[in-house]
Design a protein that fits this description.
The structure is a homodimer. By secondary structure, the first copy, chain A, is α/β, with parallel strands linked by helices. Helices cover about 45% and strands about 15% of the residues of chain A. In chain A, strands 5-4-3-6-7-8 form a six-stranded parallel sheet. Chain A starts with a helix and ends with a helix. Chains A and B meet through helix 1, helix 5, strand 7 and helix 9 of A and helix 1, helix 5, strand 7 and helix 9 of B. Chain A binds a DNA duplex through helix 3.
Chain lengths: ~210, ~210
DNA sequence: TAGATTGTTAATCGATTAACAATC
DNA sequence: TAGATTGTTAATCGATTAACAATC
């Protein structure tokens, strides 16, 4: 069962449903949600049926019910403790990011090689890199955000894997090689921008 | 011609090729590149043929040649001037981000409603929101990074569109509605993390 | 030449869209 | 009941993989 683009869409539906709820709605129809999420109504229904999200014929979908089920799928019953490695610009921004809402994760520790950053006060405790392994193992951390400089990426990635991390959100532009049981999601800011520029440029060519 | 996942991969190949070049290599084979980029050799060849990237039978691909052609595709002959709207944590991080290399874009102006941020010194000039339209039009800006708080997202998005922006990199968790000729690429940090957590959790269930 | 590798065509696979029966 | 909407099956579309001929 390959679920990939779906999973992103499910999170997108969640965002839309939260918005609907805030606006005071209780029910949503597949075409409402599709419209709001930017996909077809059929796509919504298909996605929902894949994840067992049920509506009522004629009555549409109950927003609260959907949110509960989606939160179940994403395990919002427990808080996933994650760590952040690298307190550069991006790392610090993530640590101070205020727009997370109704999340199922919590950044419980940050790591950096720079001793001055370790001393500084942040919202979460900052440790020296040497403490990484023991912290991860003691707290059974499975998820890490990697925001170190590119030159350090491979080495730190190996450290994370050998400490027992199973998922890495990789903000570096470096392709990481990991064992099969370690998931890497790449978020290359430069590539995101170049992709957007490409799309805009090629659209204008055809006009 | 739908090119979508491809375009991301092409940028990924570029990253790998730059790495190979740095290591002193001059030639690459499809299986080298595939290995490094995490895709099959067939995928590499297929992608290349789609974009007219040529190799030599038996001889593989010339790294420099490939880089030149890929840079052509992404219009690295000109610098795309882009703006940043919202100087919160993420916005400031992007402004100070140092890991962009061989880019074809340049953040030439930033905008915020907070007057104290407008006064502060950054690497690029910071303007009040009221100056947005005139700046975009005077400088023919087509691309914007949107990093404002969620509540402001829709309004600022409309401002961007009416000023003439054609591509938005949307860091807010808000679904933006824009005319057909305006491309929006979403980068929702919360959803990226929740997706990763989901993948890790569901992988471990199956073991 | 024999071997290795590209480039492309054909086959497969998966995801999206369309259609429609079920039903509230 | 008639109309509207879900849920699912079938049809289409596109992307990936496999196969292999061309050729250096």
């Amino acid at each position: 069962m390959t679920v990939n683009r779906n999973i992103k869409r499910l999170l997108q539906y969640r965002t839309c449903l939260l918005r609907f709820k805030n606006l005071g709605f209780e029910k949503a129809f597949s075409y409402n949600l599709g419209e709001e999420a930017g996909v077809s109504a059929e796509q919504v229904r298909k996605d929902f049926s894949l994840y067992g999200l049920k509506g009522n014929k004629k009555g549409g979908y109950d927003i609260n019910e959907l949110l509960v089920t989606i939160n179940d799928i994403f395990k919002h019953d427990k808080t996933h403790e994650i760590i952040l490695v690298g307190l550069g610009n991006i790392g610090q921004a993530l640590l101070q990011y205020k727009n997370f809402t109704e999340i199922n994760f919590n950044i419980v520790g940050a790591f950096d090689i720079d001793p001055s950053k370790v001393k500084k006060k942040y919202a979460v405790p900052v440790y020296a890199m040497e403490k990484l392994k023991i912290f991860v193992q003691a707290n059974k951390i499975k998820i890490a955000i990697l925001a170190v400089p590119p030159v350090a990426a491979k080495e730190v990635c190996n450290d994370l894997v050998s400490a027992g991390i199973k998922g890495i959100l990789n903000f570096t532009p470096v392709v990481l090689k990991t064992p099969d049981d370690v998931v890497v999601n790449n978020l290359d800011l430069q590539n995101e921008l170049e992709e957007l520029i490409y799309k805009v440029d090629s659209k204008n060519e055809n006009d």
